[in-house]
Amino acid sequence: MRVLRPRSPREALSAYAREPKALPLAGGTDLMVLWNAGLLNGRRILDLSRLAEWKKISFTKAGARIGALVTHARLRAHPLILRHFPLLAQACAVVGASQIQNRGTLGGNIANASPAGDTFPPLAVYEARVILATAQGRRTLPLREVFAGVKKTTLAPGELIEAVELPFPPAAPRRQVFRKVGQRRAQTISKTVAAGLLWMRKDGTVSELRFALGSMAPTMRRLSAVEAFMKGKKAEVTVIEEALRLLERDVAPIDDIRSTARYRLGVSRNILRDFLG
Fold it and tell me: CATH number for the 175-276 domain, one of 3.30.70.260, 2.60.40.10, 3.30.390.50, 3.40.50.720?
């Protein structure tokens, strides 16, 4: 096995352009499992751990820029993330145990593209944009457009995640929620994971709803039909019940080793009902 250890983003992108089949190593919390199992014998590894520029968190008037190599532990404790993007901090606080949080990175989490990624619903409702870099240049994608399926992304050969941008919400939401449901209270993979933001007008009608679910389908999903339906309506019982019926249009739940589609659908509806009610 050959390990490439670039010292700067420029060196990393150049090396990846030359060897696009190399495996990028960020925190390594998933990659090292495969490595220890002997499944990566003969593969080349692109170790990104020396890229200090990609470990920064910065803020502008528009929002936050989070380097791809920022760990979950830093995000859960960062005072400005806690103030402006609390749902992301909450999600980072339940990603595995403290050892995983100290090693795992936001960019690595996104590149891994697990349907059960705990940070994905909060990133989705904050309308995160992912900055992708190659030796030739950069492009920016909405988070949802990065995922192509279970453990699959739309990243091109030679392309690395450089950072994630989070625009400030237009105003403080009236309500917000992050909820992870698993087999136990800690160190568990999600059966379903949800995040939501709700803004309301003075007359009690919904001005904007953002709601996303993970661990329900091959990729994280925003509830587009539910969001559109709720806009301009009061969250009355009959309206909420219709929104719950629409949830299944946005997310076709899956059966897998951790749970059933029926359970996932029921729990997700309960979370949405509690949030809207």
Answer: 3.30.390.50
**Whether residue 66 has pLDDT greater than 70:** yes
d(CA 50, CA 240): 50
- Model confidence at 185, in pLDDT bands (50, 70, 90)? low
Domain residue extents for the chain? 2-47+54-167, 175-276
Do β-strands 2-4 and 138-142 pair in parallel, antiparallel, or remain unpaired? unpaired
What token pair was written down for 82?
A: 């806690």
Residues whose CB falls within 8 Å of the CB of residue 31, separated by 6 or more in sequence, listed in order: 23, 25, 40, 45
**pLDDT band, very low/low/confident/very high, at 263 (cuts 50, 70, 90):** confident
**Residue 177 · residue 201 · CB < 8 Å:** no
Evaluated on CA atoms 39, 44, 49, 55, the torsion sign reads negative
- CA-derived radius of gyration, the chain: 19
Q: What is the pLDDT of residue 36?
A: 78
Domain 2-47+54-167: assigned CATH number: 3.30.465.10
